Amino acid sequence: MPDKGGFPHFMIKEIFEQPQGMRDTIEPRLSLNEGVVRLDEIRSSPDELRALRRINILASGTSRHAYMVGQYVIQDMVNIPVDVDYASEFEYRNPLIGPGEITIVITQSGETADTTAAQREAKAKGSRTVAISNVIDSTIAREADGVLYTLAGPEISIASTKAFTAQMAVLFLFALYLGQVRGKFSREQRRLYLKDLLEIPEKLKVQLETASLCESLADRYHAFDDFLFMGRAAHYPVAMDGALKLKEVSYIHAEGYPTGETKHGPLALIDEHLPIVIIATRDQDDAGSMLRYEKTVANIKTFKEQGAHVIALTSEGDEELAKLTDAIPIPTTRELLLPILEIVPMQLFAYYMAVRRGLDVDKPRHLVKSVVVE
Q1: pTM
Q2: Do 104 and 80 form a contact (C-beta atoms < 8 A)?
Q3: Which of 57-61, 79-83, 202-206 tops mean pLDDT?
Q4: Can you give the residue range of the structural domain that contains 330?
């Protein structure tokens, strides 16, 4: 019988297990001294990876949000086209895939019916497949050409938390491995990437220290019935997952939306009755990140002028947004690793919102952990 380990629910236990799950997932697969990533599990030769012309990624639910982050990471780091799709929609659009490509399928359980069906379709069209799963010897792992396990440990709560952060870490490692094989990075560049990745487990511990802040925000916001979550670039899918978590466990309507798209319609909804959760972090060593941040600050000021309540995920030390919003600080790291940290306060907020509403956090109504029907 699974043990809650002194926690009131599996969901909060699994949120707090993320530092260890992250460490177990990344450390065996790299050498910082050598500046090397080892992913022999994908079972593709260096020649195949050097000739690779496109990557397809298929998933559903929270796993889909991980692959959307992965799309940004892989294209930014390796400059290979990455196509993404819902696993449940894949068979309906005559997918144009085939030899010379890799199709990555992601599912926590390894048994998701839509994803296993999509993997079989991709293989039938001649694409190599790589599965990312949290369950050893699952269906999707057995049927794939290669498999990368997220070693996050068993996930009991229906709302996926620690598997999601581990999936993002594996996709970051995969991007770095491709760049290594294809000669995109020097040894020193790889060492810098790996150093930053190895710091993430400790930074997750720091992030978890915001739990009491997230609980107090849930006390303040629990009576609202609608939320809008926003982010730009690789942070947009994090916002989508934050909205999904809130929907799943608290039964509150929430929508994840690209921040820059609000002027094309959603701006009309924004007032004091629609709280906004927005990702406004920054990597001061990344010009693109700083541009994203500046645009986001301008958006926040507009939302505040319209009377909105704004919860902002901000980089540590951001005094301007601390005054302007209900700010949740995020430890500093490089731009493409920030999503792993940003999702944690959204998980905590969703959890405490559900607890505040007196709901069954681990078993939301109508949902199951492994969706084995199409």
Answers
A1: 0.95
A2: no
A3: 202-206
A4: 207-356
* Buried/exposed code over 228-262 (b: 16+ C-beta within 10 A; e: otherwise): bbbbbbbbbbbbbbbbbbbbbbbebebbbbbbeeb
Q: What percent of the chain has pLDDT over 70?
A: 98
As given in the structure block, the two tokens for residue 282 are 């920054």
Nearest-angstrom CA–CA distance, 174 and 257: 27
Shared domain for 228 and 159, answered yes or no, is no
Q: Is there a domain that residue 268 lies in?
A: yes
Overall size of the chain counted in residues: 374
Question: What are 321-362's pLDDT values in tens digits?
Answer: 999 999 999 999 999 999 999 999 999 999 999 999 999 999
Burial of 4 (0-12, 13-18, 19+ CB in 10 A): middle
Give dist(CA 300, CA 321) in Å, integer.
Answer: 9
